[in-house]
């Protein structure tokens, strides 16, 4: 029989989907029958005319060599396996839905990673409007860029996939202003003040208020409310808005408080005047804003004449000198003085009243206990001062609430058991200034504070004199 080397190799290339099984088959003639093997990248992949690859992967695609030989020679041929990737709808591996904080003015890169076959196209949208394409979207954020950004992956296979990243752009306060937005506001003393602060910031600011530069610690909200405003709260008010990125002060608003203080008598607090003087002078002071205050004084009787002169006293003050001429036949009259400006009216009435005299009365009573001690004549001794304080307490208790009493004084002690001499100062004419003491001893008993008193010894002297006179 004739011998021949290997010849007439028959093979064909293969195209297969990734994951399928693939079988390569080749045939060759020769005598003696040739040996057959499959080689790839210098490595033997199998023996025989058939090579089976299960679940082929993309990496197993490529060129394979079919090699055959016998004792007379060898022959080989290359065939290829084309592994096609199955079509796959896109999958986004990031971003997951999240919120990222950025400060205004910072550069931001948003990344969207997606897989699929064919490779998906990626677009970026904001509020439904396309703002970029590709895996990475870059921007320098501004405050109005706070929003959710959506990346969409689409390769035409299945449904397009999308995911979102939300940016929270943070910035310091700005456009801080007070409403009502006026340069100044006018209020009357006793009115309520209400101001409101508004501005733009992220995160939201904390608010504070300043009055003439001083921080109002009791006002820590965007609303400033002052009830029953007074003249000391006059001035410039500003709102302060603050967050972790900075703070801003608003433009000031001037609060003008209009007021009219009560009429004041300079140099005296009396509201009466001497009955005996035909000429009376009142020196009055008025503090007010607006300062164009008028003053009028009206007597209650026709035989009283008044004349008023005025001069400025400081920025918001005026002083008035009121001359009053009183006829002698006018008794118990009054003068009504009235100050007036756009805020309102203040009135003060001065009355003509009789002058009350202060009179001093000397009195005494006898103690039957304790017994006389010689040290009671020594005003510096402990015994003298102890007895004096006990007697004063008895007298104070006896005259408690008596309207005409001006003063009490223990003068000294006289031997005779113990005679306590004291002095009462009373206002006006009192028929019996010792009556309250008698009534007190009668109700309390003759033994008080460890002292034994003789009720019948309470006496007053006939000596009486004027000690002082009221003045205007």
UniProtKB/TrEMBL annotation:
GO terms for biological process: cell-cell adhesion. Its main location: membrane. It is found in: Membrane. GO terms for cellular component: cell-cell junction; plasma membrane. This is Hemicentin-2-like isoform X3. It is a single-pass type I membrane protein. Gene3D superfamilies: Immunoglobulins. Residues 5-82, 90-164, 173-254 form the Ig-like domain. Keywords: Disulfide bond, Glycoprotein, Immunoglobulin domain, Membrane. GO terms for molecular function: cell adhesion molecule binding.
